[in-house]
Structures are given as structure tokens and as C-alpha cells.
């Protein structure tokens, strides 16, 4: 009888341990993705930072294991949120007024990058001054837009040679007219930078005019016939991930499946999750694109 009871107790213990392990696995906290939108700055339908991140939030709502929060006016009210975030996206006007280069914010973000914070930047948010954020951006996402070196023409590339990468799952060939920046200031030899959306600007695009300054720039014209990178990803040495996406000027482009899905996938990827096999699926209607616009 003693041995029988001992045997039953051992079975019960094994089952209990298994149940406990499953319970721990099931209660793993979701990854926290912060989406930070800048202030209104352009005419309605362009640089719709707030409407953009709210659209992303809705599209990411069904991604298992992901918790998304949205923040506005260029910076969260509570900076301590960065300490527990797994990834952050900046979608806002950049350059010298970029919210991230104000006060001690670069150092604050660097402290979180050091622990592996995922980092993404959309459109104007990829531009920082070379002497105030440039070196950080090259480490965080691999490169940045540098005034008078990079260019920002409005043109219509077709992306039909898509790489085999998780951020391109479910993305088919697409065409989009946007203010596609190119010729970023990358790390030397683009070390660690993996191109995602690549196309060759026409000679007319290289000859300008660019949005500002209008150009043309001789070094851009000399590269006629070459392909250019419009979005890219980085696996960082600290274990974190980063991406840059230079489109996003025209809000209606989020209605283009490939345009939208490539960014949604990238957001899941920098958060440290597996991108769904078919990419992040989300239906976006014309009415959806009219919601939350700046006026």
C-alpha cells in the first residue's frame, strides 16, 4: 500500500508540474509596441501621423502576443513607458525639430537600445541632423536621411523584386506614388543593412526637382541607372531589431496592401515576434482612411 501511494503521488506531482509549466507559458506577458505620432504639420491627407498610428493599432489588434499603445504630439507623456517597451515606432516630422533630438532624449533612447529595444522610423522621422542623432541612427536602424546628401522626390517606383524576409511575408509586387526618400547615409559599406523595398529611379527623377531643396545634386545624377533602397531592416548586435521606411507622405497609400503590410510586418518583427506566415492581414477601406485625419 505504501508503494502504491508513493507511485500515485509521483504521478500527481508530475502532472502538477506540467500544468504549472503550461500555466507559466500561457501567462508570458505580451510584447509592448509603442507607436508615437508627431504633431499635425502638413495639409490634410499628408503627414497624417496620428491617423496613421491609429490605423496601425487597429490592424495589429489581432496579432497574438502583441500589446500596442499609441502616443501623440511626438513624445509620450510618461517617459518611463520606454523602460518596459519592447519596440517603438516614430512617425513624425524630423530634421532639427525631430522630437527625439530634443533635450536628453537621444541618451534616454540609447539606454533602452542597450537592452535591445526595437526601433522603427517612418518617412520624415528617418531624418535627423548628422551631428545630432546621425551616429545614433546608424547604430539603431542602419542609416538616416542627411540633408543635401539624401533626396526626397515624389515619384512612382514599382517594387517587384521582394526579398525572402519575414517582413515581406504576404507582400506582393506593388506600385505607389509617394515622397520616397533615397540615398540614405548608411553605415560604412551598409554593414548589417538588409534592403527590403528597392527600385531604380528614372533619369528624370534623379534630375529633380526634389521636394526640398529642389536640386538637382550632382552625386545623385551620377548614379543614373542604379537601384535605390526605400526601406530596410537591421539585426543589431545588442539583440534588438530596427527598420527604416521612407514612404508615408500620402496617407491614402496605407490603403495599398503591399505598402501597408510591409510596415505592419516590420512592426511585429522589431517587437521580437514571429511575423505570421501570410503577413499581418488587415482590410482597409476608403472610409477607414478618412478616419482621424488632421484638419
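-> sequence recovered:
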Amino acid at each position: 500500500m505504501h508503494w502504491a501511494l508513493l507511485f500515485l503521488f509521483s504521478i500527481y506531482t508530475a502532472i502538477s508540474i506540467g500544468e504549472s509549466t503550461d500555466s507559466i507559458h500561457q501567462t508570458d506577458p505580451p510584447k509592448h509596441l509603442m507607436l508615437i505620432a508627431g504633431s499635425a504639420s502638413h495639409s490634410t491627407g499628408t503627414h497624417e501621423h496620428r491617423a496613421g498610428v491609429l490605423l496601425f493599432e487597429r490592424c495589429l489588434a489581432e496579432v497574438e502576443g502583441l500589446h500596442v499603445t499609441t502616443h501623440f504630439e511626438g513624445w509620450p507623456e510618461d517617459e518611463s513607458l520606454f523602460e518596459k517597451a519592447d519596440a517603438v515606432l516614430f512617425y513624425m516630422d524630423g530634421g532639427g525639430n525631430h522630437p527625439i533630438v530634443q533635450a536628453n532624449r537621444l541618451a534616454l533612447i540609447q539606454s533602452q537600445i542597450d537592452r535591445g529595444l526595437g526601433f522603427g522610423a517612418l518617412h520624415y522621422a528617418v531624418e535627423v541632423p548628422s551631428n545630432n542623432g546621425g551616429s545614433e541612427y546608424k547604430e539603431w536602424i542602419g542609416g538616416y536621411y542627411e540633408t543635401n546628401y539624401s533626396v526626397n522626390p515624389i515619384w512612382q517606383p514599382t517594387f517587384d523584386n521582394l526579398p525572402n524576409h519575414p517582413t515581406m511575408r504576404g507582400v506582393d509586387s506593388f506600385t505607389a506614388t509617394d515622397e520616397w526618400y533615397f540615398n540614405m547615409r548608411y553605415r560604412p559599406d551598409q554593414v548589417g543593412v538588409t534592403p527590403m523595398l528597392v527600385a531604380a529611379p528614372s533619369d528624370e527623377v534623379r534630375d529633380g526637382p526634389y521636394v526640398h531643396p529642389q536640386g538637382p545634386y550632382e552625386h545623385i545624377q551620377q548614379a543614373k541607372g542604379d537601384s535605390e533602397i526605400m526601406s530596410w531592416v537591421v539585426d543589431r548586435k545588442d539583440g534588438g531589431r530596427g527598420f527604416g521606411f521612407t514612404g508615408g507622405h500620402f496617407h491614402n497609400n496605407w490603403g495599398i496592401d503591399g505598402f501597408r503590410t510591409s510596415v505592419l510586418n516590420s512592426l511585429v518583427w522589431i517587437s521580437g515576434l514571429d511575423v505570421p506566415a501570410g503577413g499581418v492581414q488587415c482590410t482597409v477601406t476608403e472610409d477607414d482612411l478618412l478616419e482621424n485625419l488632421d484638419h
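The domain at 31-289 is CATH 3.40.50.880 (Rossmann fold).
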